[in-house]
Amino acid sequence: MDTPDLYWWRWGAGKPLPLDDYPQLQTMLKAWLDLPNGLEPPASIPLDDVTLNAPRIDDPVLRSLRRLLPEDAIRTDKLARAQHACGRSYRNLVCCQRGLVPNPPDVVVYPADEGQVAGVVAWAADREVAIIPFGGGTSLTNGIEPEPERHPTVTMDLSRLNHLVSLNTDSWTARIQAGARGPELEAALNARGFTLGHFPHSFECSTLGGWIATRSAGQAATGYGTIEALTQAVRMVSPTGILETKNIPAAATGPSLLHLALGSEGAYGVITEATMRVRPQPEAQEYHGVLFHRLTDGLNALRDLVQQGTPPTVVSLSDAADTAVLSMLSHEPQGWRWLADRGIEAYLSRRGYAPNGESCLLIVGYEGEATYVKNLVKQAVATCRTYDGFHLGQAAGESWKRDRFIQPYLRDTILAMGMMVDTLDTATTWSNAVNLYEVINAAINAAIPTCGGGSGHVMTRFGHATPGGISLTTTFWGRRMPGQEIEQWWEIKQAATEAILEAEGTLSHHQGIGRDRVPWLGEEIGPVGMAVLKALKRTLDPEGIMNPGVLVP
Amino acid sequence: MDTPDLYWWRWGAGKPLPLDDYPQLQTMLKAWLDLPNGLEPPASIPLDDVTLNAPRIDDPVLRSLRRLLPEDAIRTDKLARAQHACGRSYRNLVCCQRGLVPNPPDVVVYPADEGQVAGVVAWAADREVAIIPFGGGTSLTNGIEPEPERHPTVTMDLSRLNHLVSLNTDSWTARIQAGARGPELEAALNARGFTLGHFPHSFECSTLGGWIATRSAGQAATGYGTIEALTQAVRMVSPTGILETKNIPAAATGPSLLHLALGSEGAYGVITEATMRVRPQPEAQEYHGVLFHRLTDGLNALRDLVQQGTPPTVVSLSDAADTAVLSMLSHEPQGWRWLADRGIEAYLSRRGYAPNGESCLLIVGYEGEATYVKNLVKQAVATCRTYDGFHLGQAAGESWKRDRFIQPYLRDTILAMGMMVDTLDTATTWSNAVNLYEVINAAINAAIPTCGGGSGHVMTRFGHATPGGISLTTTFWGRRMPGQEIEQWWEIKQAATEAILEAEGTLSHHQGIGRDRVPWLGEEIGPVGMAVLKALKRTLDPEGIMNPGVLVP
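ok -> structure tokens follow
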């Protein structure tokens, strides 16, 4: 209820991955990145040693807020404020590691229904108090941090709005409250035999409302579609009133208001619930691994898979650098095990595949009725063979599936080694995919050493494939420059972002805009697009209290 | 170029269907609708006998317009003004039959590129001249008629912007200019082996820009998706500037501006081109007919077809009243021939199917690789059998396919008999489909006699099925009350529209809002939704010159 399970200083609620479980990772990172010996993970700082700004909301104002909500739905304690102070970007985590929580909210509220949400929003609009809707707190783009100096801020934690309101088993829709986190939403649907099929990396922590507000895409977006495709209707409480879109499978009633709530990032209102397109849980899920000699072979095979016949449910194509890391991790006691032993590697090597060289790993998964899935897998393997793909079998895929949400925990482990690590997301057409990939790699590989990060390591994973194109998620590692972490990271991020836009990639495929990407939004959507977003802001949030500084500052 | 092929007083450009070719239709309509004997089709009125208002744009203003466009791109003659005076709704056609063209544009322009469009829009904004973007002129909702009294009006015919700009065969996208009509767009794509797969009833006349501006859905929307799903990027010239969305398969960069252009109905700007998601032409197309004992059987079968496995490309389920008309027309010399002869009917009758009674016809079509399509058809027939569906075979489907664009011509024929005929479109969830159907039927069946239309005939066709729901297109026929046609029709239309909204259908599935449905738009999208549409209008069209009175008056 009061999110006691969320750490204020690191990812999520699950168990951390201890550094000692990754001896090879440590060794290889030291070699690759030229890290000094005797690395010590930065000690985590107890909350007692952290100093927060004094709350800017005084007792009389708090008293008026207490008329709207029960006692336990309003918190001003240090833990609640620290838990809701920022997202989980590299910048955020570095600050937290140092014990810096510069902009905590003054108050955290936990409304339990839409009426309470509307009450608090109206209360805030009257007083020019800022409201930040808070789902799982996993923003990677600085999308939920209060603005310094500007307004007293109430962060609205939606975790009590977490119910499956109703399920329509004829029309395959589910009304779900916005604060439902991935696991609780799936559990409620699974209990009735259904699934939403939305599995972003942040799945364990993030919420339905957060997914809709950021136009999220999950690992199964190739089969199930992104959150845009899965959302049929929303309710959003704005300071101007409630925007409610109709629960209709398709309509031609002017511009789509649903698509204004999708991607609104809390800047236009608080999404309180949505009617989602759900499906019966699949009878079978088969995830397989295929190894290609070269990235272009993997991309060509992947394009064929989505353009010809039934597209896979899940695809994930790692470039050589990412495949090398996966291969290395597969030997760690707690790591992926898609290459069961060195014997397989020796065999692959004789066949000309090099998991630590040029080879690229594709994970491809299908879901549905068992025989149907078997056939699709057979066809997919045949398609991959035409590009010299080596079928690693289901073990590789199962291993990927088991560890599909591990990435952010692994990031914490790597951060604990004192490294710099961040991720960028973009998408482009098939015809521009290799070009964009090369441009991003060149930009980051040039920027890391220039910014004092050593030789660095840049790796890309391709996902969410459609007949029209594909997404790219690029992760870079480098040596951290103590005391200048933020400046160093920001320079690399800038160089990468500008390279992406120059090469006609999108500014974001699934992380959203937040505050970090605002400087480039005009370049992405043009001056008329910016004028439209600002007009929407003035209309829905005339006092400018909704998540100030995010999306449309 | 100057659309000499478009009639000003009836549908389209193709050959009319002579009344004499439909002896049975005449007989049955007379019986059903209690029509008087000796019906004479209203004589069409020569344009010479029609009086148009004097143009409200004087020579000095015209001279300034001539600086922007070549001589032949500006027309003020009677034919051009009459051709562009209104859409093709019942109201429009009744007026035209009477020789009434109350609100013609003052000038018709034919820009040949986006620069000319932008020039004319800027010129008009400076002078408070209204601009109406004109595609195929097929609006059924009064979406392209100049406002009486308000502004001098320039109708912008986009027929010269009709080129396939480029085709990307890797990423399956095509940049196409907005004025391309269905047949020329498909011909250009087909020549390169591709198709858009968008086939609304108006296909022969309507244009890409019109489809996007009205959020059109075609007959193959179940397989290919509606125009929303097919559109990847647009360019729209607004008085504020050009709105250009990025050519990207997926993005998370704030609210989708693409979905503001989709459905904008000319009220925000002129769509000049779009990047469309195209596909290779299918190797095989198989369209089959299946007859069901009852509508609910057909609906249940259809739901299974779209929810289980691969959805059909085309579906069209006729209720009993529509099936009866199709059955009757099948015996006309020029009509459908899905029931090849009376022998089949006798056989069907022995099996308990009654094409002139309760039975309902489903057309279901699949497209793709030949063996794959054969398998899908086999599965579909098996699914239909579980609901006692009788497989009529491919002849019924082929007949449907051949005559798929005939409906508006048939409407002209029926109008020529002096009847009232109109069509409403809506959509709803599966669980509400039968309820909505019954409510609409009851409302129209009650309204027709009340409004002097005799007993009338109401028939519905279900199409565009998704896992979440289905669209309903309801056509009604009745006796026309000479001299009071518009009032009579409007009362029935109002009753039907209110019934649809009461029963939670959408105000429009594919016809759009235009001017006719503006009174109900607030009920559909709510006060906050209306505030948003108005804010967009103020932002993109501050002078209010774009298609005034349509969508957001």
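The first helix of chain A runs from residue 23 to 33.
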